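The pair is set out directly below:
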Amino acid sequence: MRLTDYTDYSLRVLLYLAIRGEGLSTIQDISDAYGVSKNHLMKVVQQLSELGWVETVRGRNGGLRLAERTRKLTVGEIVRATESDFALVACLPDQNGERRPCVITPQCRLRNVLEAARNAFLAELDRHTIDEVAGPQGPLAALLGIRTVIPVVPAVPVEPASDNPLPVA
């Protein structure tokens, strides 16, 4: 089974935004990172936004970021939403539930084998979330040219030294 470029780009956009974290990214950033067409990505981002998986911020300092709930989406859920056809052969039902007739259908074992393989493929994709496949973020961020932001940990206040130290037992 081969996924369409549309699905591939959808997964790449979500992966990029998951790695990027809270900061905003532009379609141009993603296009540059992967070396793919900005125009193709615009169509993908529009659908991802309509699905509520990507938040868009308009304006001069606008951009894109991953909706928080998207981190929990499975790769299988994303593939099902972006692929248009899972009928590996004509006798399997398409998105509309239709199948083309075949003379060997009453005795065909191949159809069941292919259907089981498709189901196993999707089941494996359902085992992995976007958040999971985005890790570890450091190495992926470096490959994509994303500067990772190191969270600032507040310093613990230190009490000033006393002139009268306590006796040590």
User: Anything to note?
Assistant: Residues 5-20 form the longest helix (16 residues). Residues 5-84+129-144 form a domain with the Arc Repressor Mutant, subunit A fold (CATH 1.10.10.10). The chain has seven helices and two strands.
